[in-house]
Backbone:
């Protein structure tokens, strides 16, 4: 864990807020940081992607990107971080690898596009490798949620039972099942949106080459 002096040099010292942030700082340097820090960063960058879409900096579907962002943040914090037992599952590694490769390709594509010097290989990778990476990531996400279900039920995690003064109940176990079901209508939209984009963009590139 970083020393207090090193932390104070970076963020200052003396306030209650500093001590709170210092706890969070220490969390990322725990034994789990090899997974959680990169995963959090990908979630944050996903949020940046949503903002970039809204501002028109990059060409993507705002609705579909928003779903990706929310699903990633939810999976990181509300499932994998909250249910320690699933952190050693192979499915976690599956979606982390898929996310990592996807984001490397995505931001290489965005960077070279903004520089008006986009290599065809990166464009091809952006609109081709998702064919494998998207199902791989979704499979990892769903398998991780499924693995968490028995632990969530046993611990009653995030669930609210009756009676209580608000006369309100919430079953987090059932909510996770609904989340899994929601992938059925949403994932095909995302996937076939990319298939459509691939046909349009790569075919346009091929036609452009013929005229050169």
Residues:
């Amino acid at each position: 864990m970083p020393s207090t002096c090193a932390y104070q040099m970076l963020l200052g010292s003396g306030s209650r807020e500093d001590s709170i942030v210092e706890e969070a700082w220490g969390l990322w340097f725990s034994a789990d940081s090899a997974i959680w820090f990169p995963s959090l960063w990908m979630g944050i960058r996903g949020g940046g992607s949503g903002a970039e879409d809204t501002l028109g900096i990059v060409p993507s579907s705002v609705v579909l990107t928003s779903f990706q962002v929310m699903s990633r943040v939810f999976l990181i914090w509300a499932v994998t971080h909250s249910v320690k037992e699933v952190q050693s599952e192979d499915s976690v590694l599956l979606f982390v690898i898929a996310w990592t490769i996807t984001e490397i390709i995505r931001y290489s594509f965005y960077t070279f596009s903004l520089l008006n010097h986009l290599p065809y290989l990166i464009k091809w990778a952006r609109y081709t490798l998702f064919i494998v990476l998207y199902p791989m990531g979704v499979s990892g996400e769903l398998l991780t949620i499924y693995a968490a279900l028995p632990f969530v039920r046993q611990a009653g995690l995030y669930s609210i039972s009756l009676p209580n003064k608000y006369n309100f109940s919430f079953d987090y176990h059932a909510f996770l099942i609904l989340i899994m079901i929601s992938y059925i209508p949403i994932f095909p939209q995302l996937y076939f949106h990319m298939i459509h984009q691939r046909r349009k963009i790569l075919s346009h590139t091929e036609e452009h080459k013929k005229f050169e």
Residues 38-211 form one domain. The longest helix spans residues 172-211.
